[in-house]
Design brief:
The protein has 2 domains: 124 residues, 3-Layer(aba) Sandwich (Rossmann fold), CATH 3.40.50; 249 residues, no CATH class. 39% of the residues lie in helices and 18% in strands. Helix 9 crosses helix 13 and helix 13 packs antiparallel against helix 14. By secondary structure, it is α/β, with parallel strands linked by helices. It is globular, with a radius of gyration of 22 Å.
C-alpha cells in the first residue's frame, strides 16, 4: 500500500449523536474512526478474546464504559458479532444521554434479526462507509486502475500482483467469516455457484429465475442468497424510475456488487468472454458506487434509480431529489455516435425538467442536441459530498 493511502481524507458523514456506521469489510471504517475520534475508547469484536467475554456477559460493557470519560465517545467495532450488546447500549443511552456510541458493522443480518437497528431508533442514526471516491484519492486516482482493481481501500495502492491476490481472497474470507462461521448457508457448494452466477447479473436487470437456472438452485433459495449478499453489504439494487411514467417500463431492479474490482475478481472469465462487455459493466458499476457514496455522504436526501422501457430505451441512472433531477448514461467508448444519446433523448421527452449528461471514455466535453457529454475521468473526481452533480 502506498505510504499516504491510509491517511486520505474521507468524506464519510459523521454525527454529533450516537450512530451506526455500516460498510463492507476493507472500506476503511476503523481507520477513519481512529482519525476522526482519536480520544474514543474502542472495543474490537473481531478479537476472539473480547468477543468471547462479551458473548457470555454482555453486561460487562457497562463496566468498560464506566471506566471511560463521563461524556466520552465509545466505539464498538463489528457490533453484529455480539448483537446482545445493543440492549446494554440502549440502557446506557437512556441513563446517560450525553454518551456517544459509534457502532460499526460489516453485516446487518444479525442486527436485523434481533431488531437491533430498530431498537436504537431515535437514539442512533445510520451512516455508511463506501470504497474510496475519486475525489478522496486526489492525484492518486487512476480510472484505468480503478476499473481493474476497484476502489476498496484494502487494495488501493497495492502493486498489481498483490491487489489481485487480495481481491481473489476477499470474498473467500468474507464467506468464511460471515457465512460459514454463522451457519447462514447449509449448501456452501450451491452458494459458491450462486456467487459466480450472480456476477453475470452485475449492471443488469435482475432475473432471479435466470440465476437459479444457471447455478442449479431453487428460485426461493436464490432469493434468500440475494438477501444474504445485501445484508452483508456486498451488493445493492437499483429500482426503476416510474414517477409519472408515460411509457410501459420494466419492473425488475438492476443489480450491482458494491465495488467494481470485487465484481471483476468474482466474475469467471474465459476465451469466449468479450473484454469490452466486462469493461462496460465495470465502468457502470464504478459510476454507481460513486453515486451511492455521494448520496450517503451528502445526507441521503436523493434517491437513485434507472429507467428502462419495455421497448429497450434505457438510462443507466436517474438521480431524483428535492433539489436535483438528473439522468446519467454511461458509455464505455472513446467516441460517441447519435445513437448513444437515444435513451437520454427519450427520457428528456418524458421529463423535460430533468438535466441529462452522458459519460464516456473520451477526453473532450461537448454538447450534442442539447445533451452534454463529459469524460467519466473528469466527472468522478468532481463528485464530492455536499456538492452538486458535476454538469457542463
Amino acid at each position: 500500500m502506498l505510504p499516504d493511502m491510509e491517511v486520505k481524507s474521507r468524506q464519510i458523514l459523521a454525527s454529533e449523536r450516537s450512530f451506526f456506521l455500516f460498510g463492507p469489510r476493507g472500506t476503511g471504517k476503523t481507520t477513519w474512526l481512529a482519525k476522526r475520534f482519536p480520544e474514543a475508547r474502542t472495543l474490537n469484536l473481531l478479537s476472539p478474546d473480547v468477543r468471547r467475554q462479551l458473548l457470555g456477559h454482555p453486561e460487562r460493557l457497562e463496566e468498560w464504559v464506566a471506566a471511560g470519560p463521563e461524556n466520552g465517545t465509545f466505539v464498538i467495532d463489528e457490533v453484529q458479532r455480539v448483537p446482545e450488546l445493543l440492549d446494554v447500549v440502549h440502557k446506557l443511552l437512556e441513563e446517560r444521554p450525553s454518551l456517544r456510541f459509534v457502532l460499526t458493522g460489516s453485516s446487518a443480518r444479525k442486527l436485523k434479526r434481533t431488531g437491533g437497528v430498530d431498537l436504537l431508533a431515535g437514539r442512533a442514526v445510520q451512516r455508511f462507509c463506501h470504497p474510496f471516491l475519486a475525489s478522496e484519492m486526489g492525484r492518486d486516482f487512476s480510472l484505468v486502475r480503478a476499473l481493474r482493481w476497484g476502489m476498496v481501500p484494502l487494495v488501493a495502492g497495492l502493486p498489481d500482483g498483490e491487489a489481485e491476490d487480495v481481491l481473489r481472497t476477499y470474498l473467500d474470507l468474507y464467506v468464511q467469516e460471515e457465512v460459514t462461521s454463522e451457519g447462514i448457508v447449509r449448501n456452501l457448494g450451491g452458494f459458491a455457484r450462486f456467487l459466480e452466477a450472480a456476477s453475470f447479473a452485475h449492471g443488469s436487470v435482475l432475473s432471479a429465475s435466470a440465476v437459479a437456472r444457471d447455478c442449479g438452485v431453487k428460485r426461493s433459495t436464490v432469493d434468500g442468497y440475494f438477501a444474504i449478499l445485501e445484508d452483508m453489504l456486498l451488493t445493492a439494487r437499483l429500482p426503476v424510475f416510474a414517477k409519472r411514467a408515460k411509457r410501459a417500463l420494466v419492473s425488475h431492479d438492476k443489480f450491482y456488487f458494491f465495488d467494481c474490482g470485487v465484481f471483476r475478481a468474482l466474475r469467471p472469465k474465459g476465451p469466449m468472454d468479450n473484454p469490452n462487455e466486462l469493461d462496460g459493466a465495470c465502468l457502470e458499476g464504478l459510476v454507481f458506487q460513486h453515486l451511492r457514496a455521494w448520496r450517503d455522504y451528502s445526507g441521503g436526501r436523493v434517491r437513485l434509480h434507472y429507467w428502462r422501457t419495455q421497448g429497450g430505451l434505457e438510462v443507466d441512472f436517474v438521480v431524483y431529489g428535492e433539489d436535483v433531477f438528473a439522468a446519467i448514461e454511461v458509455k464505455n467508448a472513446a467516441s460517441l455516435g447519435p445513437g448513444d444519446f437515444r435513451g437520454l433523448k427519450a427520457f428528456r421527452e418524458d421529463y423535460p425538467e430533468a438535466k441529462a449528461i452522458l459519460l464516456y471514455r473520451g477526453k473532450e466535453s461537448f454538447v450534442r442536441d442539447g445533451i452534454p457529454a463529459m469524460p467519466v475521468g473528469d466527472f468522478l473526481p468532481a463528485l464530492s459530498a455536499g456538492a452538486a452533480l458535476p454538469v457542463l
